[in-house]
Amino acid sequence: MSDLKHLPLKALHEAQGAKMVPFAGYEMPVQFAAGVMAEHQHTREKAGLFDVSHMGQVLLPLSADAALEALVPVDVIGLKEGRQRYGLFTNDAGGVLDDLMIARRAGDLFLVVNASRKEHDIAHMRAAIDGVQEVTDRALLALQGPLAETALARMVPSVADMKFMDVAQVAWNGVELWISRSGYTGEDGFEISVPADAAEGFASALLEMDEVMPIGLGARDSLRMEAGMPLYGNDLTEEISPIEAGMTWAVNKVRRAGGDREGGFPGADRILNEMQNGAARRRVGLRPEGRAPMRGGVPLFDAAEGGNQIGVITSGGFGPSVGAPIAMGIIVSAVPADITLYGEVRGKRLPAIQTDLPFHKPDYKR
Amino acid sequence: MKFTEEHEWLRADGDVVTVGITEHAATALGDVVFVELPEAGTQVAKDDDIVVIESVKAASDIMAPLDGEIVEVNDALADNPGMVNDDPMGEAWFFKIKATDLSQMDEYMDEDAYKEMID
After folding, report:
1. Closest by Cβ to A218, choosing from B34, B54, B56
2. How far is residue A148 from each of residues A47, A157, A182, A196, A211, measured CA to CA in Å?
3. CB-based contact B57:A30 (threshold 8 Å)
4. Nearest chain B Cα distance for residue A315, angstroms
5. What pLDDT score does A1 carry?
6. Which residues of chain B have pLDDT under 50?
7. DSSP designation for A116
8. Distance CA A269, CA A210 (A)
9. Looking at domain A1-278, which of 3.30.43.10, 3.30.1360.120, 3.30.420.40, 1.10.10.60 is its CATH number?
10. Is A30–B52 a contact, with Cβ atoms under 8 angstroms apart?
């Protein structure tokens, strides 16, 4: 445990009753005193504050936009100042190396990458881009939920004017906050990068508000699953293409067949071909019929007995807002969408209905 | 009442022993969303995994603390697994086992020893 890295808000989390666990090399709060279920519901109804400081924050010079574009199937060159876009680092085989957020600001490009992949991603970018700078002196918080704007606007009034995927650099108490209107819960909300030495004061001011409760990684996972959002390492991997993962929307128009800057990213041959001709597998939402959760790794079959294994659960658990188990899996595309699938849990095949994603419809401020 | 290192409690009434999990275990598990119980009439051996309990976070097993026959299970848990968090030491018992050898109880802790273990 001694080589676990600690984050700026450790003391505050412990004062809030956090249960800390190791996650991606960091000691992180998995839940607070209220527990995963209550934290999840609070985020859907009011506002939840998440510490995601373990994630990687990276700055690139504006001049690197074309070089970054060569690593992702995203329109980085056309990204407007003050806006953010979802992106994927792809590999030559058309799989996914990580997913990330890319923001264009007045003076630079600001990226947020997954904690478990940040060393990889930084090396990957440095091999192709000059001036890649990891930000190590800032915490990253997310404030998510229908009352997130109400709460944050008390401290930073201008956030009320931001729309979904806007980014802004805003002064607060003598420091600069880097704010985006985005998140990983399927709720309206913000992600806020704050200098490490101001993070506790900033987080405490939010937590003092009636609407705001601290939320751990447990509820972060159930919220993102209900929102149908993939988790890198589970639903997105080096073997699963973005098209198989149902992320076709993340391949921006100018990078698609017939676009002005068609292709030109790793694995473009496979990815553009799958867009044209269909992919071998598809990501599917699943509603297990009973109460037993089907978690990542559960094999999926096309029959209650015999039949064939046609896929695997990539993420699954209990959906507190759905009030039932939910799961996502990757299955052979040829499997009809209207047949019941069977997940093998503890040696028993249990039925699960295929369903559209998300399980919980987002309510973003567009 | 006796307690196991696996955070089960055992309450004997003659040779029928009621088994559940402790408050400490229920809190550590978090919100329980699924409980799978054995069928009444099942013969079990000490340390067999006989109950599956899943919280929002993870799945765990509960072992038979004694050799014997499962004579009754708490079916209410299947429909209302959250009972395990609300009343783990009372309403949310898991099963009753007719012990083959009640002296197997002797190796388990009394309440003071259990409290010392979890502190």
Report:
1. B56
2. 5, 12, 11, 21, 8
3. yes
4. 12
5. 42
6. none
7. G
8. 52
9. 3.30.1360.120
10. no
| Nearest-angstrom CA–CA distance, A232 and A234 | 5
Compare CB distances from A36 to B34, B56, B78 and report the shortest one's residue. B56
Q: How far apart are CA B110 and CA B119, in angstroms?
A: 15
**Residue found under tokens 């783990």:** B88
Length of chain B counted residue by residue: 119
| Minimal C-alpha gap between B61 and chain A (Å) | 11
* Chain B CB within 8 Å of residue A291 CB: yes
Of the CATH numbers 2.60.40.1510, 2.70.70.10, 3.20.20.70, 2.40.30.110, which one belongs to the domain with range A280-358? 2.40.30.110
Angstrom distance (rounded) from CA A105 to CA A80:
8
Q: Return the ∠ at Cα A296 (arms to A292 and A302), rounded to 5°.
A: 70
Helix residue ranges per DSSP H, B1-119: 23-29, 76-79, 83-86, 111-118
Average pLDDT over residues A146-172: 98
CB contact under 8 A, A36 and B59: no
pLDDT of residue A351 exceeding 70, the answer is: yes
* Residue B59 C-alpha, separation from nearest chain A C-alpha, in angstroms: 9
- How much of chain A, in percent, has pLDDT values that exceed 70? 99
Name the nearest CA neighbour of A13 among A237, A271, A277, A213.
A213
If you classify domain B2-105 with CATH, what class do you get?
Answer: mainly beta
Q: How far is CA A267 from CA A50, A99, A242, in A?
A: 34, 15, 10
The verdict on a CB contact (< 8 Å) between B31 and A37 is yes
